[in-house]
Amino acid sequence: MIVEHLSLVDFRNYAEAELELRAGMNLLVGRNGQGKTNLAEAVAYLATLGSHRVSADAPLVRDGKNAAFVRARLAHGSRRVMLELQINKQGSNKARVSGNPVRTNELPRYAQVVLFAPEDLTIVRGDPSARRRFADQLLVQRTPRMAGVLADYDRTLRQRTTLLKSARARGMKVEQLTTLEVWDDKLISLGAQIIDARDRLANDLTDPLKAAYAAIAGDDHAPEIAWATTIAGADPEEDEIDGHAGSGSTEEQFRQALLAKRAQEIDRGLTLVGPHRDDLVLRLRGLPVKGYASHGESWSVALSLRLAAAELLRAESPGGDPILILDDVFAELDAARRSRLASVVSGYEQVIVTAAVAGDIPDPLRENAVRIEAGRVLGLLADHPLEEGAA
């Protein structure tokens, strides 16, 4: 799979932009703040239905406008498909596939993209929400219907938590809150699907993660990946990642955990059990990456997670390789990791690399270089090789 053409209107700092992309390597070069990352962000949004930089859509729309438009022509072998997305500052977004209106959550069926950016260091060093977001975006890419499950869970969670807060304010007792059971049933049904899907994801990422880490770091530090779940007694949001394996189905364990926490939930006005409080625990040499890994090791784990995700999608997708985007990451890596990363990604059908300084990019990745300046795509620089160290 490759993106052949990208068109933007009122997206970030672009009034209008047209970008031709090729199979193989594509390098976007520009000083910081010129808009190269915005191009990468637009491509990735089609596959993940979210930004890697902001949690809301409003910042994606150019100042003074009500909507932004992203259009991409994708090639799957000899087949072409046009994806169109209208991102609204307010209200629901709209989407089309080859001219036909579709729900926005249909877009990941057609676009497979894996993006790595400096912000990904928060996946290994940040709070649990960053790791949940990484996992859930990958879940949606693997199984697009999970977008609906995750959205329904979030709505149910908000409604249940509102009820708990109301009960707390009114001083209600556990036995008085009979309507909570209705929300429990919905929360359990949706949450169990998420927990089970996340668990399968962690298992499926295990081997690709080990292979990617060894390739990037040049060492075998025995990386591990597993979920710490509240239904098993852990509470990662309170820095408690050790739980115990329960018996019975996921739904049964979820229900028992909710019952055990019922009084605490009413006292605090919070839903204390569910996938919204779980954490994806990463370990090297048996120790949690967060708090124990060096800076270089943390970078290697973050890179390896994205590369493992790419390998997983590559193995499962009938559309071929996912589009791989490396957004301004080479400046953060030492020479050895740069070289190893270049070697790993060179086999992908299409790779998009952004950089402020061309000298940071290994020679094999400098093909099809395009200059980006002040929200303008200035054209292919194939006839004008970039100078070493030029911005």
From TrEMBL:
Keyword Nucleotide-binding: yes
Organism: Microbacterium sorbitolivorans
Main location: cytoplasm
Domain AAA+ ATPase: 22-384
MF GO annotations: ATP binding; single-stranded DNA binding
NCBIfam families reported for this sequence: recf (TIGR00611)
SMART domains assigned: AAA
GO CC entries: cytoplasm
Family: Belongs to the RecF family.
Residues that coordinate or bind ATP: 30-37
Record's subcellular location: Cytoplasm
PANTHER family linked to this entry: DNA REPLICATION AND REPAIR PROTEIN RECF
SUPFAM superfamilies: P-loop containing nucleoside triphosphate hydrolases
Pfam families for this protein: SMC_N (PF02463)
Main function: The RecF protein is involved in DNA metabolism; it is required for DNA replication and normal SOS inducibility. RecF binds preferentially to single-stranded, linear DNA. It also seems to bind ATP.
Protein's recorded name: DNA replication and repair protein RecF
UniProt GO BP: DNA replication; DNA synthesis involved in DNA repair; double-strand break repair; SOS response
Leader peptide range in chain numbering: none
Keywords: ATP-binding, Cytoplasm, DNA damage, DNA repair, DNA replication, DNA-binding, Nucleotide-binding, SOS response
InterPro entries: AAA+_ATPase, DNA-binding_RecF, DNA-binding_RecF_CS, P-loop_NTPase, RecF/RecN/SMC_N, RecF_2
